[in-house]
Amino acid sequence: MIWGLTNSSPRYICCVLQPVCCFTSNEYSSVLRSQCHQRNNCCKRSFKIIILCQRKTPGEIVFVGAGPGEKKWLTWAAVKELRKAQVVLYDHLVDKEILKLCNKDCEQFEVGKAIHCSEDTRVLQKDIHNLLEHYYRRGKYIIRLKGGDPGIFGRLAEEIDHIKSFGGKYRLVPGISSVFAAPLLAGIPLTHKNWSKSLTITTGHDLSQLDFKLLAKSETLVFVMATRNLSEIAQRLIENGKSSDTPAAVIYNAGMFNQQEVFGTLKEWASRELKVQFQPGTVVVGKIV
Fold first, then answer.
1. Is the whole model's pTM more than 0.70, yes or no?
2. Which of 84, 96, 113, 164 is catalytic?
3. Structural domains in the chain?
């Protein structure tokens, strides 16, 4: 005979000895016990089967920034989290050397949305949500490893909203974003007291979402996910009032051993005089370049 669980089931039943088997429900971990004997103030009783009900230990989700490239750009806080991980869900561009910091029993899943992947093989955002919830309910210590900083163009808010929807808890560990690291590693400071008192950061992935009249007025622009649309971006900035002689640089594979910088002007990028490489890159536009 096995007793079912309800919301009114007791949290604990007397004192117990040997476990027989375990099973779980949505809210409880239940352990089946075979005997109940006298302990301290307990009455003399004997039960063939009882159930000890206790709340299941929930998992933990930690969003961690992997930095702009190689392992050396990780923060110490990120390293400590990775060493504790039981499950890691990592983005496509994360350096695979970073994953070697995890213990040998850690489960690892690439969940990045690589552009070159087909629709059939690309991981959907809802799949990431499902994985986070699945392992959280199993009580796992989950690291959601995102390139750069988790909070910058990483769909962090969507994943947090889903965690909140099932009552989960999470923590955030910042990382070094390529938005700031790439220009600096190429020798470009993003601010200057005369030439760059303001900074605009945006993506170049979907140009229909951008206000080029407003962008053209910005002193310094940083685009991420923009290399495929760079020629059109340059042309539309010129059309909306930005000087065609405005300097513009692309930093490819920032923070990696194969980092490369290409410097030019908006006119050169718009006319395709400078060849665009279809690989990860950060674009900086302004006199500061």
1. yes
2. 113
3. 1-56 (no CATH), 60-176 (3.40.1010.10), 179-285 (3.30.950.10)
